[in-house]
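Consider a typical record:
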Amino acid sequence: MLLEYSKLKETELFSFFNFTEIGRKPQSSGMMEIHLKPGGFQEFIDVAMKVDRSEGVHEGTLVLDRDWIGGPMTINPFGKDLAKSFVEAVTHPVDKEKASSVISTIWGLSGSADKILYLSEKPEAEQKQIEKLANVYFGVDKCFSLELDKCRILIENIRDVGRSRLRIVITSLEKREKQLLTQ
């Protein structure tokens, strides 16, 4: 489990972006998929949370229209704020520190005309990871994945309902952990 759904409702996703439930759909796995929409720009944004019977969130998915969030030339500040806030809110608390590079990279994205200055050099491995994530967000690369202790962050470009979209999925690794312990 990533976090309790009631705790998620106390985050910026609900307070700042005004997310509200628009429906619930039972899953064959016994989970419930909760569909959410923000207060504005609803036609460009889809969110789903998979919760168990106790309303524990096991997976969160944010899907944004690529045309709306921008690309290498221009970045929609609302889109990157939403993406950053989603990763920050849904990531398991144990993994927050390790996910901070993903969060800060999304927040720091800008179009190609902008210059970004760093106060210190980043380690080369971390820099390559950040470049890969930025290129996926810009729509240049296909997929970025980061496996942490308790969850996996997947950011990928997809075709959905005939549109190019960016999908961010944060999945609990709890089931895999339990499988490894029983082997």
The CA atoms of residues 8 and 106 lie 20 Å apart. Helices lie at 5-8, 12-15, 66-69, 77-90, 96-108, 124-138, 174-182. The chain has a mean pLDDT of 89. Strands lie at 3-4, 20-26, 32-37, 45-51, 56-65, 143-147, 151-160, 163-172.
